[in-house]
Write a structure and sequence with these properties.
Organism: Chondrus crispus (Carrageen Irish moss)
Radius of gyration: 39 Å
CATH architecture of the largest domain: Alpha-Beta Complex
CATH topology of the largest domain: tt1808, chain A
Shape: elongated
Number of strands: 13
Number of domains: 2
InterPro entries: Nuclease_put_TT1808, Restrct_endonuc-II-like, Uma2
Protein name: Putative restriction endonuclease domain-containing protein
Number of helices: 9
Order of helices and strands: EEEHHEEHEEEEHHEHEEEHHH
CATH class of the largest domain: Alpha Beta
Structural class: alpha+beta
Low-confidence stretches: 1-64, 169-174, 351-356
Helix content: 25-40%
Strand order of the largest sheet: 6-9-10-11-12-13
Largest sheet: 6 strands, mixed
Strand content: 15-25%
Distance between the termini: 145 Å
């Protein structure tokens, strides 16, 4: 079966995706467009624009309202085309050095639950003045691609950025709203929640990209090991491949990082958000019962400790008494020995005297 050679990827027919041996996405001819317009191999020597080119076989051209989920995976794509992907598709793709990479839908999974939990917790933090921040779930971040000149746009699960009022955001152009974070507006912190399909990318490739971009803090919520990994860029220097420090948090240890610290978040709370929510939603009666139970257990433990200490004291006293009795016995035996020796010495003297 002939592969799809052309696919509509925009809201209208202004954007055409060619797939003829190699894939290429580009805006169709428009006198108002300032972008370069790469052409497919079929139209390199043609004086006509790609949009008006006549195909020998009309079956080579297919136009649909929207691409299917995952259909554009590994398709080369320009930054402007990527930013104009349909709403349903744009949240499912990242642009890596000019190539589209499909992002699996994480709705109704532990991944989504953790993300919602963090966003809700962070937005509840009361910050003032210069400490105010904005919390974004899945916001596009243009990152440094190193030596590659092709653009890269990542979509972290949670982005913490400098505070921006809704009014100023609303006055921004539609294009600038689609990619708020770029070289001139770097996020303060990004958070990735790992899944089996993206764990290695989150741990390695994205870490290098975020570090090279100058993002000061990168937090990895590693679901495979139930660890929270905090990487920090202490020397804020770009073009580096690794963060200056890495601290790993597990269990009930407080995650010592901005916003996590303010909400007293631990790895246990992050990886068990449903359990935490259920405990928080318990009725006052249930909480009172649990408090009484803890008090009863504490009292029993205190009593057991007191009994143990009393028994230890009695055992020590008995041991000391036995030791003293042994000492007394030894002293008595010593006195008897001394008395016997004295008596023998006196008899010997008398006998000598008589002989004299």
């Amino acid at each position: 079966m002939r592969s799809i050679l052309s696919q509509k990827v925009g809201f209208n027919s202004n954007f055409v995706l060619l797939n003829n041996g190699r894939n290429m996405a580009f805006p169709s001819h428009n006198s108002d467009s300032a972008f370069p317009q790469p052409q497919s191999p079929n139209t390199l020597n043609s004086p006509t624009s790609p949009a008006s080119a006549t195909f020998a076989d009309e079956s080579d051209l297919f136009v649909q309202d929207e691409p299917h989920v995952g259909e554009l995976h590994l398709v080369p794509c320009a930054l402007d085309v990527y930013l104009d992907l349909p709403n349903k598709a744009e949240d499912r793709y990242e642009l890596v050095e000019g190539i589209l990479f499909h992002r699996p839908n994480m709705a109704n999974t532990q991944h989504a639950i953790i993300k919602e939990f963090l966003v809700t917790k962070f937005r509840a933090v009361k910050l003032t003045g210069n400490n105010r921040v904005n919390i974004y779930p899945e916001m596009k971040v243009k990152v440094s691609s190193g030596k590659s000149r092709s653009p890269s746009v990542r979509v972290p699960d949670v982005v913490v950025g400098p505070y921006t009022s809704s009014e100023s955001t609303g006055n921004a152009s539609p294009r600038s709203q689609k990619i708020i974070f770029h070289e001139d507006n770097i996020p303060l912190m990004v958070i990735e929640i790992t899944s089996p399909s993206n764990r290695l990318t989150d741990m390695n490739a994205k870490s290098e990209e975020y570090c090279r971009t100058g993002i000061a803090t990168y937090v990895i919520i590693d679901r495979e090991t139930d660890r929270v990994i905090v990487r920090k860029l202490i020397r804020n220097t770009r073009s580096r491949l690794d963060y200056d420090s890495e601290v790993v948090y597990t269990g009930d240890t407080l995650v010592d990082c901005f916003l996590f610290r303010e909400r007293n978040l631990t790895a246990e709370k992050i990886f068990r958000p449903q359990q935490t929510a259920e405990e928080a939603a318990q009725s006052p009666t249930r909480r009172e019962e649990r408090a009484k139970e803890r008090e009863r257990r504490a009292k029993e433990e205190a009593q057991a400790t007191a009994v143990s200490e009393r028994r230890a004291k009695e055992a020590a006293q008995a041991k000391a008494k036995a030791a003293q009795a042994r000492v007394d016995e030894l002293e008595r035996q010593l006195e008897e020995f001394k008395g016997g020796s004295t008596a023998k010495g006196g008899t010997h003297t008398n006998s000598v005297g008589k002989r004299g």
